Amino acid sequence: MNFDLPEEIVAVQGSVRKLVKTRLEPEIGGYEAKQSFPYALIREMGEAGLFGAAFPEQLGGSDMGFLAVAVISETLSETVPEFGYAMNMQAMTCPFTIYNWGTHEQVEKYIPGLIAGQQLGMFALTEPGGGSDAAGSMKSTAVREGDYYVLNGSKQWITFSNVCDTGVVFAKTNPSAGHKGISAFIIEPKKTTGYQADPIAIRSLSKSMRSCSVFFDEVKIPVENRLGEEGEGFKVAMSALEYGRLTVSARLVGLAQGCLNEAIDYAQNRVIKGAAIGHYQMVQHLIADMTVHISAARLMVYRMAQLMDEGRAANRASSQAKYFASIAAKHAGQSAAEIFGGYALADDYLVSKLNGYINMLNVGEGAPAVQRILIAEDALGYKNANRHPIKNRARQESV
Question: Which domain does 212 fall in, by range?
Answer without folding.
Answer: 121-231
